[in-house]
Write a structure and sequence with these properties.
The chain is an alpha/beta fold and 815 residues long. α1 crosses α2, α22 packs across α33 and α23 runs parallel beside α24. The strands form five sheets. Strands 1, 2, 5, 6, 9, 10, 11, 12, 16 and 17 form a ten-stranded mixed beta sheet that branches. A six-stranded parallel beta sheet has the order 20-19-18-21-22-23, with helices on both faces. Strands 13-15-14 form a three-stranded antiparallel beta sheet. The relative contact order is 0.10. The mean pLDDT is 95. The N and C termini lie close together (12 Å). β22, α27 and β23 form a beta-alpha-beta unit.
Length: 815
């Protein structure tokens, strides 16, 4: 596709926009101002395609999927949009010809604070694939003002500050006041008799907010499709109560506005207290109610028969957060549109599909009945009725079996189990990796699989190669295209054509040179931002992901302590220098995870400043992990740490991004690691640790971490260093971690089997050290990983969703 706008015209548009917006010539503009002007210039091209896309959808009355998610970790829009418009190189040239540093312009864009971890990044990759595959879709979520938080480090501790990503405006979002809807909370429900003797249920004495959508364009690669990310923002129904204001009660006068703003201020507010729990539930209902109301309004513009709704609309629930959509769609159908209950229930089940993202039962969302019924009184009544009918179904199947019914009921023990509501109210329940789906079917959701076997299916997660190779690793992308053509950009399985080149000396040399350049660029960034000098010839070993105990950053840092102790005892020890790089946010209220961050930084302070080890180990914690930082880190990685306790990680997608960029995985047989192992073969991955089945047996059997402590000197010395003042003068600072591993601290000792897997993890790292010494062999392994990553494209995943769950057809958009 040729550039959609002439270079000269684009130059003039950028210059004029700077002048119009900022009253200054281009030469006096900041990088941030030039970025904003460039977006407005490029958006002209996007908007034409966007209008054409939605005009076509409306004219052809196509089925649309609505991907409902609490988070969309989009990353920066500008560079990715230019890639998909196939304008990246041309816009780069235009900026250079204007005397502007194009990298500074891209870096001026803040990462949108719309997500946190893998759940949100998956949603973003899926939107990219939906547009590239020309599938009609909306992503629907919340326009958070301050994201989850911006992570700062103070004395090695995580400190959370607001992520004010909207501070300098939002050139991508378009406010759509015409689609605003009212969302109601609280009050009570009154039954009003209808003429036919039935009742209509009316919510009264409620509080409400106005939900206003902001639309963001999502471009497909090399086509004219522009789908929409629709993010809802809360506005007060009445901005200011002038009566209270004129009486001098300014706080009361602005109460409604404060309440509305708090709804969409922060992603995942801390919920250790009831106010936090209530705010989370309000957030979930807010964006779901707004979305469902607007979708039904749109449907009614062309249709009167609601039995047609499943032929025009699909809702995909991205984890349990959007599950209230099941009850809200029932409310809109039954209360607002007089659809009989039984008909509405069949329609709802055909529209809704549920993706489960967690194996950990404690992460399956549950709400206290008291909170749920008080905040969402009509929705609570509907859930009660769904549960009553469902329990009758269970009784018919299992007879009088109170324990079975209690275990499977949507409402039990004073709680509403949202995952169970999602399963009962959907026609499809999918896991996100083959192992994950089998664990759901055979363990966590076994009763439901026996009841509804036809609902369960697997859709292994994927990533978009447009962002994670074409944009993030331009040197490697160019080499791949020169070697095998550019079909891989829209069909990642074409990377298999690289397999013969794993034996080609010239290709291997170029491949490793690109990796070296990426490592040098990252080393410069680390020097600039952290003041730490790292060696680009060392092995760059990277673990970047949300900080949670099951992801076992603690295993990684304990092993680093083990290596450090070995070097202290034998400074001449023969080892390839290692640079261990971490990036991770811990949830604001997750004390132990935050203590692990402190430990990593405490170890870094000691190790990095110990001249006696000759720079053989460096430890770096890069704060505020985000998409734009991942785009720097992943192309530079030699080793990808995917070391979760087997059976705990649903899939993981970081593992796929590293693989695509030629890093070798050290990992457990967990999540999608299993499928990576199947693709690349055991000789091209470093697998260690217990299997999911062995972990399950350990949980159910006897496990004494003290026996490992007593038998393994390396483990014993590493643990002792946590409490002997090696890493902090306060010998009690890391006592909680020591006790959690050996004695149990608010739980079972070594609940995630860090010590059990330590020796095998150390063995895998010795194998890495040995393998890296043979550059040709390492290059071959890395190239095979790239060549075999085709399965892990989100294009493949989305095509499976479209064919097997949504029954969604592509719609070609003409210019």
């Amino acid at each position: 596709m040729n550039m959609c706008i002439e270079k000269q015209e684009l130059k003039e548009m950028i210059q004029e926009t700077v002048k119009t917006l900022y009253r200054k010539p281009l030469t006096a503009a900041t990088a941030e101002e030039i970025y904003q002007a460039s977006v407005f210039a490029v958006r002209d091209v996007i908007t034409d395609k966007w209008i054409q896309t939605h005009d076509t959808y409306n004219k052809e009355d196509v089925k649309v999927v609505y991907y409902l998610s609490m988070e969309f970790l989009m990353g920066r829009f500008f560079g990715n949009s230019l890639i998909n418009l196939q304008m990246y190189d041309e816009v780069k040239e235009v900026l250079q010809e204007l005397g502007v540093d194009d990298n500074m312009v891209e870096d001026a864009e803040p990462d949108p604070g719309l997500g946190n971890g893998g759940l949100g990044r998956l949603a973003a990759c899926f939107l990219d694939s939906l547009s590239t595959l020309e599938l009609p879709a909306y992503g629907c979520g919340i326009r958070y003002h301050y994201g989850i938080f911006e992570q700062k480090l103070e004395n090695g501790y995580q400190v959370e500050v607001p992520d004010n990503w909207l501070e300098n405006g939002d050139p991508w979002g378009i406010k759509r006041n015409e689609y605003a809807v009212e969302v109601k909370f609280g009050g009570h429900v009154r039954a009003v008799p209808k003429e036919d003797g039935a009742y209509r249920f009316v919510q009264e004495d409620y509080q409400s907010v106005i939900a206003v959508p902001y639309d963001y364009p999502v471009m497909g690669y090399g086509n004219n499709t522009v789908n929409t990310l629709r993010l809802w923002e809360a506005r007060p129904k009445n901005k200011l109560d002038l009566k209270f204001f004129n009486e001098g009660n300014y706080q009361k006068a602005a109460e409604e506005e404060v309440l509305a703003n708090s709804l969409t201020d922060v992603l995942y507010p801390a919920d250790e207290h009831i106010q936090g729990k209530e705010l989370r539930l309000r957030q979930q209902y807010f964006f779901i109610s707004a979305t469902v109301q607007r979708v039904v309004q749109r449907f009614q513009e062309k249709h009167t028969d609601f039995h047609e709704l499943p032929n025009k609309v699909a809702f995909q629930l991205n984890d349990t957060h959007p599950t209230v959509a099941v009850a809200e769609l029932m409310r809109v159908l039954v209360d607002d549109n007089d659809v009989p209950w039984d008909d509405a229930w069949e329609i709802t089940k055909k529209v809704c599909a549920y993706t489960n993202h967690t194996i950990m039962s404690e992460a399956l969302e549950k709400w206290p009945m008291e909170l749920f019924s008080r905040l969402l009184p009509r929705i609570y009544q509907i859930v009660e009725e769904i549960n009553r009918r469902y329990c009758l179904e269970l009784q018919q199947k299992y007879g009088e079996n109170p324990e079975k019914i209690r275990n499977m009921a949507i409402i039990a023990d004073g709680q509403i189990r949202m995952a169970y509501l999602a399963i009962v109210g959907s026609h499809s329940v999918n896991g996100v990796a083959a192992l994950h789906t089998e664990i759901l079917k055979n363990q966590e959701l076994k009763d439901f699989y026996e009841l509804y076997p036809e609902k369960f299916n697997n859709k292994t997660n994927g990533i978009t190669q447009r962002r994670w190779l074409l944009h993030a690793n331009q040197g490697l992308a160019k080499l791949v295209t020169e070697t095998i053509g550019d079909d891989w950009i829209t069909n990642l399985t074409k990377l298999e054509k690289l397999l013969p080149y794993a034996e080609d000396a010239t290709f291997c040399q170029r491949f490793m040179e690109i990796k070296k350049q990426n490592k040098k660029a990252l080393a410069a960034y680390i020097q600039e931002t952290k003041g730490i000098t790292v060696n680009p010839d060392s092995i760059f070993d990277i673990q970047v992901k949300r900080l949670h105990e099951y992801k076992r950053q603690l295993l990684n840092i304990l092993h680093i302590i083990g290596l450090y102790n070995q070097l202290k005892m034998n400074p001449a020890m023969d080892m390839i220098p290692r640079t261990f790089i971490f990036g991770a946010k811990a949830a604001a209220g997750y004390r132990r995870a935050k203590l692990i961050i402190k430990l990593i930084n405490a170890v870094a302070d000691v190790v990095n400043n110990d001249e006696t080890i000759g720079g053989k180990i460096k430890v770096v914690f890069l704060e505020n992990y985000r998409v734009s930082l991942a785009e720097r880190l992943i192309p530079a990685a030699d080793v990808s740490e995917q070391i979760s306790t087997a059976g705990k990680e649903a899939s993981g997608t970081g593992n796929m991004k590293f693989m695509l960029n030629g890093a070798l995985t050290v990992g457990t047989m967990d999540g999608a690691n299993v499928e990576i192992f199947e693709e690349v073969g055991k000789e091209n991955i470093f697998i260690f640790g217990m299997s999911a089945e062995e972990v399950q047996q350990k949980y159910q059997g006897y496990y004494d971490p003290w026996s490992i402590y007593n038998m393994n000197q390396e483990v014993r010395m590493a643990l002792t260093s946590l409490i002997d003042g090696t890493f902090d003068k306060d010998t009690d600072l890391f006592r909680e971690l020591y006790d959690a591993l050996l004695n149990g601290y608010d739980g079972k000792a070594d609940a995630y089997f860090v010590l059990q897997d330590y020796a095998d993890y150390a063995r895998a790292h010795r194998e890495i050290d040995a393998a890296y010494r043979d550059e040709k062999a390492w290059a071959k392994m890395a190239i095979i990983n790239v060549a075999k990553s085709g399965k892990f494209s989100s294009d493949r995943t989305i095509q499976q969703y479209a064919d097997e769950i949504w029954h969604l057809q592509p719609v070609h958009i003409t210019e």
